[in-house]
Amino acid sequence: MKAISILNQKGGCGKTSLSVLTSLALASSGKKVLAVDCDPQGGLSAFLTGTNDETPGLFDLLTGIKKIEEVIISVSRDNISFDLIRADYRLDSIASNADPYSMKRQFKSIEQYDFILFDNPPTVQGISRATSLFADEVFIPADVSMATLGPTLYTINALKDIEKKGKVVLVGYKEPKEEASGYMAEISRKFMEAINGYFAGNIPKTVTTARAISDPTIKWSDTKVDKLLSPILEILGVN
After folding, report:
1. Which of 56, 180, 201, 228 measures 20 to 30 Å from 26, CA to CA?
2. CATH tag, 2-230
3. What residues contact 91, with CB distance under 8 A and at least 6 apart?
4. Phi and psi dihedrals of 139, rounded to 5?
5. Quick check: pTM over 0.70?
6. Does residue 47 contact residue 77 with C-beta atoms inside 8 Å?
């Protein structure tokens, strides 16, 4: 079993989007996947189930109300299926001061999955730190903007403190032509220079990608899987 943590101190930079795509990509390749929503906002839960209302999930597991087998549900997107542990607003009461080893205790003995994926809230403390301590790999999604650069570098350095190397996945990045000038070209160059050594790949920010993340009715043909999900597997290094 391999654990993946997806986080960035910056909110709205693509964490949940990358979590959805990664879960779909791994499951489409035949891997057994458990996605864990660790954000009290419940974004991953809403995308995958249509609701983030109070339901048995990670809060109940971490507080001892439920056992792990009681909070796992199965989700499907067309012909792609995997498991999920949901989150809701109750998680906010314990997420910020979560025991650093709480996730390791809960998930280290699970053997029925090839991958466990954690979608974190916009912080590097509390539950995000706990998932990252447990994780084999940590990915940092980042949209290319000046508002995201500082938090992304902060996240990289915070992970160094727990001896983890974050891998940055840029969202919507397009390499500027050598002769290109202007605001976006300069930001793109500055971003890439700043994260040198931590860049893992990029995912497009298009209407097609957005629909693949949010639309449960989309049909996952082999062509669509190859176009939208196979690049994720390349970033993960999964054959």
Report:
1. 56
2. 3.40.50.300
3. 38, 39, 40, 57, 58, 59, 62, 127
4. -110, 140
5. yes
6. no
